Backbone:
């Protein structure tokens, strides 16, 4: 007797969210009035809350409100990397902590060669340098060695997934900057520059 495996969207909430967001994006092209946009945002929040829980969603929304996001994308391969920077509270009146930085990777959307449209497929994996992501993947590997850690999500990754659906393209609600590179070499140079920072401080697990 052949056992039927459930679809990946049932096993991994992030895949279910991706499917939902793509459907909403297609609807957005047809309905762009203010009421429809607000309704889609509220529906997105309800779906995210159902899939990931209130605590993780709240963390993602706080990230969108307080963090600055820098995206680097290579035009040829469509590879992309994000750096999230958050200003810390001051220890003293005359001294301010260095901003904490986390770098994230999102899967690369697969573009259809027929009409250059984005399909529902992607290649690559999710990754974040924050400690919560590290602990979650470690726990998953120890408790279920056969489970895939490619779909683990922290508040930073969830924030990046939700940003296009919740915020305007101008980056309303967060400081957002995107840089496109013409070559893979330029992409690597920009990534290293962001990871090391102007003061030589390397981004690590915090």
Residues:
């Amino acid at each position: 007797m052949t056992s039927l495996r459930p679809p990946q969207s049932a096993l991994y909430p992030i895949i279910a969210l991706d499917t939902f967001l793509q459907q909403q994006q297609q609807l957005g092209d047809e309905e762009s009035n203010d009421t429809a946009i607000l309704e889609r945002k509220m529906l997105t929040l309800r779906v995210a809350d159902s899939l990931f829980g209130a605590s993780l969603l709240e963390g993602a929304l706080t990230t969108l409100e307080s963090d600055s996001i820098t995206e680097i994308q290579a035009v040829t391969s469509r590879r992309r990397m994000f750096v999230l920077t958050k200003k810390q509270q001051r220890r003293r009146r005359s001294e301010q902590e260095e901003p904490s930085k986390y770098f994230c990777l999102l899967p690369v959307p697969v573009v259809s060669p027929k009409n250059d449209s984005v399909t529902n497929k992607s290649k690559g994996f999710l990754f974040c340098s924050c400690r919560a992501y590290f602990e979650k993947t470690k726990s998953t590997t120890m408790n279920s060695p056969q489970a895939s850690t490619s779909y683990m999500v922290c508040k930073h990754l969830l924030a990046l997934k939700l940003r296009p659906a919740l915020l305007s393209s101008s980056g309303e609600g967060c400081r957002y900057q995107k840089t496109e590179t013409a070559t893979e070499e330029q992409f690597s140079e920009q990534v290293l520059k962001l990871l090391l920072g102007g003061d030589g401080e390397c981004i690590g697990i915090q």
Q: What stands out?
A: Helices lie at 8-11, 13-30, 34-52, 54-66, 131-143, 155-166, 184-196.
